[in-house]
Amino acid sequence: MDGGRLSRIPSPTCPMKTDALAPGQTIGILGGGQLGRMLAMSAARLGLRTHVFEPGAMPPAGEVAGTITTADYCDREALAAFAGSVDVVTYEFENVPADALDLIEARVPIRPNRRALAVSQDRLREKRFLNGIGLATAPFHPVDPASPNAAGILKQAVEVVGLPAILKTRRLGYDGKGQVRIEDTHRTAATLASMAGAEAILEGFVAFAREVSVIAARGADGRIACFEPGENVHVDGILCTTRVPARIDGGTRERAFGIAAAILDALDYCGVIGVELFDTADGLVVNEFAPRVHNSGHWTEAGAVVDQFEQHVRAVAGWPLAAPIRHSDVEMTNLIGEDVADAPAIAREDGVRIHLYGKTETRAGRKMGHATRVLGPATRS
Ligand code: AMP
Predict the structure, then answer these.
(1) 257-279: pLDDT as tens digits
(2) Which among 365, 370, 359 is positioned nearest to 332, based on CA atoms?
(3) Which residue's alpha carbon is at the smallest distance from atom 2 of ligand 1?
(4) pTM of the complete model
(5) How remote is the C-alpha of 211 from its chain's centroid?
(6) Which of 37, 223, 245, 357 lies most in the core, judged by the most C-beta atoms within 10 Å?
(7) How far is the CA of 94 from the centre of ligand 1 (A)?
(8) How many CA atoms lie within 13 A of 263 on its CB side?
């Protein structure tokens, strides 16, 4: 068994007591994708009900949540009815419009809080926040492609961050979408056009040995629990595998825990967070964080006593966090697009846990499920 890390001392910034939800009370979940589905399943195991709010028809979470509202995030009546029917609201999707959150927050608490969401929604604000609490990020510079002087701004940004670099939209990017790599300054106009007018940020390319992530949680009492860091492999910007433990030394592991804890405390956070890190020759560099359960934490279903989904439900419901005890070394593989057809063959293997999301349409690049292979009893790298 391997313990991850659980802090015993509540943070001084955190309220000491939050009323815990009782079995039978309801968690509202904004977003009905696979993360919402897995949260709803965990909540049900703890005797808590869920009500999912999702604009799209037939969402993955709809099959397992107690109640589903199908409405747009602009539908104030539907939002008010949703907020009135739940005891706390969380989200599996960070791009919920601010107006919808204002309306909900006037009626019921949102966990993690609005600041965590606002910071993570904007790559520029996120990087400034991270640097502001003393954490290293890639060098960056804002770029407004709609500015009449956009080409000049991009040139200046390249001078600041160097080449190669990556131009990313500030908002609404995920799985490598809204990103373009720049090797030289020859195709400036095309590079700027690829942002489709959206505000952007130029990031210097980080030469990393590996990508790791920490799935951590902060409870309503301020306690923090970090799962063992996982080592991630991305292909075309999409997570392909997470292997646990990551091949990092003990000092780097402690530093990764410290980074996650610093972010959680600075945001007075309640819930699970996914912190993506680059392991470099100069130490850990923060790529980004997601204020929710995270794809690179799916391994916890098969490798830990309590998984990230239950941990998040515990936190937002005001229950005590679980100790992040890991019993196995594991490797999680995403089943993307047509990979889902391999699921029956994978199911024949010993020691593998499969999770499919019930998506009716298979599309290239779409996350359809994941498989986690147990490699053996928990070891440290
Ligand atoms: P993101 O959407 O920002 O998480 O980027 C997706 C993936 O692109 C990351 O997991 C990295 O593999 C790669 N990437 C993003 N930003 C950088 C960077 N500044 N330097 C090197 N690789 C990056």
Answers:
(1) 999 999 999 999 999 999 999 99
(2) 370
(3) 176
(4) 0.94
(5) 15
(6) 37
(7) 18
(8) 37
